C-alpha cells in the first residue's frame, strides 16, 4: 500500500526553476519560479539527524518574502539559533497549500570565510532525488552538487548491485547544481521491472548513493 498525500490531487504543483546552492544567515536570496504570483508560503525544512527515536536536528522555518512576476525574494533569519547551519529542503506553496518539489539548499553562518571559499571545503557534496518516489512512469530526476570540479559518473543499480544503466558520465563543474534523469530503462532501452533500485554518484574523491522504488504499469 502506497500513501499519496491529498495535495497531489488539488492541482498542478508549483515549480522552482532555480535557487542558490548556498546562502548565509541574515541575507536575502532569489527563487525563480513561473508561479510567483500564486505563492503564499516559502519554507525551509532541515534534513533529519535521527538517533534512536528522536530527530535531534528537526527544524521548520517559514520565510518572509516578496513576489515578482517570475521570482520570489526570500529573507533568511539572522540568528543561527532560529536557522542553524546545515542542509535544508526549500519549498514554495501556493494558496491551495500545494507544495513544490523540494530543492536542496545549504545555510552557512556568515563569518570571515566567504561562500566562495567554503565551496572548496567539501561543504557542497550532496545528491538527492527531486521527483516522486516511488516512480510511476515518467522520469526520475537526480540532482547533485560537487565542491570540486572533477570527472564523475551517475548510474542506476539493481538491489544486487548490478549496473542497470549509466545516466551521466563526464566532467562536472563545482559549486552549481547538476541534474540528470533516468527513464526507467536499462542500457538497451528496455523497460525494467518494478522493484527497488539504487542511484549512485561516483567521482575520484567521493561516492553518494540513494534508493528509488519503481512501479511499472
From TrEMBL:
Residues of the Galactose oxidase-like Early set domain: 13-107
Segments crossing the lipid bilayer: none
Classification via Gene3D superfamilies: 2.60.40.4070, Immunoglobulins (2.60.40.10)
InterPro entries: GO-like_E_set, Ig-like_fold, Ig_E-set
A Pfam family recorded for this sequence: GO-like_E_set
Protein's UniProt name: DUF1929 domain-containing protein
Natural source organism: Eiseniibacteriota bacterium
Lineage: Bacteria, Candidatus Eiseniibacteriota
